[in-house]
Amino acid sequence: MVFSRYVVATAVSALALGSAACVAPTDVAEMSPLVGTEWELRQIQMNDGQLLTAQPPQNYTAEFSDDGEVFVQADCNRAIGQYTVEDDNRLSITMGPTTLAACPEGSIGTEFLEALNNSALYFFQGDDLFIDMQFDSGTIQFSGTPTPPLVGTVWQMQQIQMADDTLIVADSPENYTVELMDDGELLVQADCNQGRGSYTLGPDRRLDVGEIATTRMACPEGSVDNEFVQALSSSDLYFFQDGDLFIDLRFGSGTMQMSAQ
After folding, report:
1. What is the biggest distance separating any 2 CA atoms in the chain, rounded to whole angstroms?
2. What is the model's pTM?
3. Alpha-carbon distance values, 10 to 114, 130, 174, 251, 255 (Å)
């Protein structure tokens, strides 16, 4: 089940604006093998015998950026932290503020964040990432899903979930795409219309899209071309889940889900 984030979008916007003041940026000297993958939590094995299992795994993720930030999904909450790595595979994570949504019974979101804060060493077995915690207290196990790059990928719309429970789904998703170019240009296919605009990326995964100019063809009945363009123009924050791109819209108004074409 895909977790819908729009219920906490406003809180996350506040988190993004305030996190830089709370935690100083940390540069990662060289590209860490942690970077470039969305790590989905499988389990946390505590050394007292307690086993915490992620249900579902895609609601518990960690993504390490090449500039020392780590973006965490802890069930129904999101958090941003800082990390450092050393040559002997030492890993230090300092989590910053988190959203404060009340997760369902059985959630291990709090335990997940606490475990990350206690990171000490990391290693790989096959495609899985393991993080040993401080004081030999336990081990976190992740499996990896390569994350497509935001820029240079053609993203195809899956749905737009609005905060008022309206769900916008395209009859032909392949006709609704957006591509962010490396020169700051944005190319859009909105059903029978094409458009282009500009975008900028800010800290903490903020995405700001400028005005999108489109052709003015009359698309067939049932088209959601206008809704698609309006949603893109309202982009605020982006994140990845299970290989898909999610874009939170301004003012907590909704979340757009897209997949790599």
Report:
1. 65
2. 0.75
3. 24, 33, 30, 6, 12
